[in-house]
Amino acid sequence: MNHIENLTRYIANFVDELSKSGLTDVVISPGSRSTPLAMTFAEHPEIKEWIVLDERSAAYFGLGLAKQTKRPVALVCSSGTAAANYFPAIVEAHQSRVPLLALTADRPHELRDVGAPQAIDQIKLFGDYVKSFHEMALPESIPSMLQYARTRAARAANEALTGNAGPVHLNFPFREPLIPDFSLENLWGEPLQEPYTIWHEGQKRLSDSFMKQFAAKLSSFKKGVIVCGPQVKEELAEAVSLLAESFGLPIIADPLSQVRTGEHATNNIIEGYDAFLRNEKVRNALKPDYILRFGAMPVSKAYLFYVKDHIDVNQYVVEHHEGYREPVGNPTEFILADSVSFCSDLLEEAPTIIAEDNEWLAQWKQMNEVVKKHIAKVADGSLTEGEAVKTLVEIIPDNSSLYVGNSMAIRDVDTFLMTSKKKLTLLANRGANGIDGMVSSGVGAAASGQPVTLLLGDLSFYHDMNGLLTAKHYNLNITILVVNNNGGGIFSFLPQASNEKHFEALFGTPLHIEFQKAIDMYGGSYYNPTTAMELKEALQSSYKEKGLSVVEVKTDRTDNFHWHKKLWSGIEHEILKTVME
Ligand code: TPP
């Protein structure tokens, strides 16, 4: 068989098998070496291709789309630095367990390490940040090689998704000529009903005898705390709230736990812990007998202090597959089990632990009420950062996603997102907490068709303005709320802020630029509200519009620091005076 037929059939079988394995989207960046992959994906009837020029943005776009859909997304790029630009998103996908397939084109072996153009060493380029790496064979179309292409495709798609999801890297050597021939008969191979290779994954569940013992152990304690950290399983909300109600326990619910909002019972959910656990006396008064955590470590630093202060407390961390996410270093029992089944299994063994006279829960709720009261009062009409976020979380539409940037954005969402019946999906890049790739991630999530609001700071926005191009190209519905405090607002809360000589240049890093001009360039609607009411109206109009809208709220870093301090000290004061007297 000739070269073109080998190339065409090999890649067509590969791409078709990805489709049969559940892949629906591919993000393609332009380049010559990747032509066989790019053209074949574009030709495949079942796969939607997204063309994103900048590979760094492309990979974050794929990450956002995969986070939103929980399906693997493929990335295709040319050789050289094109592939290296995937690195930050691959790191984030690895750390926050998102299924991605990096398909990088490469020179054939005879053109490697000999000074050929656009050639770098792509073998294991992403190191241990991928679940696996495979160097694909050169294209051939004898039956065994078409089987090989199919099995490698299915393995990669399934590997990215099973266990702890994550990225997988396949590197493709291609010899010229590179253009496939789609007129070949039976291009997509035999029309199999089923994928060539199928994976079945079971849920981890602990034995009945363990669950009996564990339930008996928990029953011997009065003061338990359930913690829901960042996690993506929607069903956990219902299961964990049933468990908490029947055990009479508070749930410390991180904003990224998917537990704060939704139709489930929210009576035991404590959203205000970040405010009141800042105080050491409060942390001591709320010393638990045990902590049962689902998901990753919460965002809140006050919660981290709470755990640190209570090293002698039994801590149980539930992981659905495997992992070590206990950054405090306290003694911990890891429970490797599906979180939802674990909750119901535990309920079965110990249906009701604490029924009445539950002072423990009452104390948590009382403190939470104080926080809620103070948060509700935050509204004097001026537009502080806190008020901006509070307004956003109040009016964000039902059945939509909120993609939250790092730095102050996620912390303010932690403070202001209260329980509600709205169905919101909370997304963030908390695997590695980068301020890069945020626009592309949000736009990627919007590519799923789900309405998305992205909340982020001005440095994060600037870092990834390239990401706006894809929103324009595909007319994706996204509202971006940029809190522009002209620099890194979070640093005002750190000890570095007291170093007058270096602070502004090294940490504050103001940009002094006008974003409106950039938004115009990308054809987006631009709003610049100056009061809470104007912000509300701007957001509401943006939700009615199609395409890209950017709402910029201009604030001041120093004012923001004092504003937050005042809010926290008001809460602290009242709790010490009324609840802890
Ligand atoms: N570079 C990357 C890629 N990620 C990071 N987390 C940092 C640097 C360090 N960093 C953390 S927060 C921050 C920086 C530079 C400032 C972010 O500023 P902005 O996005 O405007 O948010 P604000 O602090 O004002 O809320």
Automatic annotation (TrEMBL):
Binds 1 thiamine pyrophosphate per subunit. Its cofactor is Mg(2+); Mn(2+); thiamine diphosphate. Residues 201-404 form the Menaquinone biosynthesis protein MenD middle domain. GO terms for molecular function: 2-succinyl-5-enolpyruvyl-6-hydroxy-3-cyclohexene-1-carboxylic-acid synthase activity; magnesium ion binding; manganese ion binding; thiamine pyrophosphate binding. The keyword Magnesium applies. Its EC number is 2.2.1.9. SUPFAM superfamilies: DHS-like NAD/FAD-binding domain, Thiamin diphosphate-binding fold (THDP-binding). Residues 14-124 form the Thiamine pyrophosphate enzyme N-terminal TPP-binding domain. The keyword Magnesium applies. One of its GO terms (biological process) is menaquinone biosynthetic process. Pathway: Quinol/quinone metabolism; 1,4-dihydroxy-2-naphthoate biosynthesis; 1,4-dihydroxy-2-naphthoate from chorismate: step 2/7; Quinol/quinone metabolism; menaquinone biosynthesis. It is an enzyme of class 2 (transferase). Residues 439-553 form the Thiamine pyrophosphate enzyme TPP-binding domain. It catalyses: isochorismate + 2-oxoglutarate + H(+) = 5-enolpyruvoyl-6-hydroxy-2-succinyl-cyclohex-3-ene-1-carboxylate + CO2. It comes from the Bacteria. Keywords: Magnesium, Manganese, Menaquinone biosynthesis, Metal-binding, Thiamine pyrophosphate, Transferase. CDD domains: TPP_PYR_MenD, TPP_SHCHC_synthase. InterPro entries: DHS-like_NAD/FAD-binding_dom, MenaQ_synth_MenD, MenD_middle, THDP-binding, Thiamin_PyroP_enz_TPP-bd_dom, TPP_enzyme_TPP-bd. Belongs to the TPP enzyme family. MenD subfamily. Catalyzes the thiamine diphosphate-dependent decarboxylation of 2-oxoglutarate and the subsequent addition of the resulting succinic semialdehyde-thiamine pyrophosphate anion to isochorismate to yield 2-succinyl-5-enolpyruvyl-6-hydroxy-3-cyclohexene-1-carboxylate (SEPHCHC). PANTHER family: 2-SUCCINYL-5-ENOLPYRUVYL-6-HYDROXY-3-CYCLOHEXENE-1-CARBOXYLATE SYNTHASE, PROTEIN PHYLLO, CHLOROPLASTIC. Homodimer. This is 2-succinyl-5-enolpyruvyl-6-hydroxy-3-cyclohexene-1-carboxylate synthase. It comes from Ornithinibacillus hominis. The lineage of its organism: Bacteria, Bacillati, Bacillota, Bacilli, Bacillales. The gene is menD.
